[in-house]
Amino acid sequence: MSDRTxxxxxxxxxxxxxxxxxxxxxxxxxxxxxxxxxxxxxxxFAAEHGLTTAADDEGNLSxxxxxxxxxxxxxxxxxxxxxxxxIAERNAREWAAENGLQITPSTCARCRQQxxxxxxxxxxxxxxxxxxxxxxxxxxCHDSEIADHRCVICA
Length: 155
What we know:
The structure is a single chain. By secondary structure, the protein is of the alpha+beta class. The protein is built from four helices and four strands. The chain has helices at residues 3-20, 39-48, 80-98, 135-139; strands at 31-38, 54-55, 61-67, 70-77. Strands 1-4-3-2 form a four-stranded mixed sheet. A hairpin with a 2-residue loop joins strand 3 (61-67) and strand 4. The longest helix has 19 residues, at 80-98. The termini are far apart.
């Protein structure tokens, strides 16, 4: 028996059980979610089934088939790998904060070069103190036309 067949049988069993037990509270938000990973897959699904898509603030698409109170929602992302990386970073930062740790980047926030701890030159690519910038970017900061400037590197 395939996973699909098992799912359909399980949904029917649940519906039958719920019908024979009126004393049991029914779910108030019965949703089935299907991640399709990409916006293109959502667009294709919507076209196949005569649905319209909706976009969230980040441009990620979704479409819904509605069967009374039951919703079958498909969704995708503008860039699935970026979405996964963002979620992983958020989870890591939350874990670190809960455990009294701080996550620091491994690349310079300005030039994006990997920090090189072996590079001890004053203008090299080692991390400048505990900042998110390499010594090269800090030493080449030219945003100093006024005496009290505060660029993102010098601040």
